[in-house]
Design goal:
Number of domains: 1
Order of helices and strands: HH
Shape: flat
Number of helices: 2
Helix content: over 70%
Distance between the termini: 33 Å
Largest sheet: none
Number of strands: 0
Structural class: mainly alpha
Length: 49
Amino acid sequence: MGKIIRLWSPVILAFATLALAACNTVEGAGRDLSATGRAVSGAADRTSR
């Protein structure tokens, strides 16, 4: 388990950094999070059918 965490930590950190850099304002971050939530919900709905 420790190897997996050490392997993926830099990837997750880089993704989070890019995601935060992409939205300059709190409003932009809120829109991004909302869009992500809608995408995840839509995918879950499609998968459960």
